Amino acid sequence: MTLENLNPDPLIKDVVFLQTVDDLVNLTRANSVWPLTFGLACCAIEMMAVGASKYDIARFGSEAFRATPRQADLMIVAGTVTHKMAPRVKRLYDQMPEPKYVIAMGGCVIRGGPYVKYGYHVVKGVDLILPVDVYVPGCPPRPEALLEALFKVQKLMKREKILDRTRRTTKPEVYVPQAV
Amino acid sequence: MGLERSEIHGILKEKFGDAVLEDHVEAAEPFVVIRPDAWEEIAFFCRDDQRLRFDLLSCLTGVDYPDRKVIELIYCLDSTPNRHWLVVKAALPRDNPRIASVESVWKTMDWHERETFDLLGVTFEGHHNLTRILCAEDWVGYPLRRDYVMPETYRGIKNVIY
Predict the structure, then answer these.
(1) Considering the domain boundaries, does residue B64 fall inside one?
(2) Beta-carbon pairs below 8 A across chains A and B
(3) Model confidence over B40-62: pLDDT tens digits?
(4) Which residues contact B122 (CB under 8 A, 6 or more apart)?
(5) How many domains would you assign to chain B?
(6) Residue B155 domain-assigned?
(7) Mean pLDDT of chain A
(8) Residue B107's domain is classified under what CATH number?
(9) Is the CB of B155 less than 8 angstroms away from the CB of A178?
(10) Are residues A84 and B135, on separate chains, in Cβ contact within 8 Å?
(11) Tell me, what's the ipTM?
(12) Neighbouring residues of B67: CB distance < 8 A, sequence distance ≥ 6
């Protein structure tokens, strides 16, 4: 929307642009997603490829992989989540500030992958312990697939409302993390 | 260059006599089966004897045989100066598998023995810190045993979904 219909002073007409705060905040947030530096298994190699020059996630403003969850707003769970690792993953997720997003990357993270039946030590899907926004199938997924997931996360981010923080209506299954 | 496998087996049989129970030099991967209570002594000999000089224990693993009621440990010894190697097996009773720790012989056995303890429940006597290494510390059971049943849930997370 511009100031056209408000009939403003011609001097400010060309330099003032009206936009809702939501849209502005979401635009900036979605084009500067900071993922958490965090890889659990082989999918992390593909995630690194996305960060490297060939696929270059920096083109989409997401190259700042943060080494602390407190500065990150995207968690890419890349690799098999074991039962021993699950409390740590959950704790990292809890330490991230809202609004936060989760990409479940690869078959293991989605439903246990090859370990779904006999993998005694594998969590059968990271969505059993934390809410997932985008699932990326593949074993491992191609880097393009992870980029596509990032675009989907950006779309979700653009739906945020600054006054409505109840974006998630469904809670994941209750799970109390404890350090082993 | 190193010794033939039959020569290594011969040296062990000459030195330890009936502590070497079986000698399978004709197998695709030749191995000797030893009496478990002699293992520590044999290990020191394998490391220190100038003809053998097994300075590296490259792998320790185990297999559960419920029908024979044994858990068989497989030690793969490697000699980097002499370029030969040796496979030693030891059969332990399945209901109470115990064997001497050779952590004092090869330091690398620290984690190998913890892994075997974790997955097969073999007790290594004399190990300084025999705790689980791969599974979580409060894990129940030994996953590589044939009769292991996977837990339905672990800490409230559903574990069996199909």
Answers:
(1) yes
(2) 48
(3) 999 999 999 988 899 999 999 99
(4) B62, B71, B73, B92, B97, B98, B99, B113, B116
(5) 1
(6) no
(7) 84
(8) 3.30.460.80
(9) yes
(10) yes
(11) 0.78
(12) none
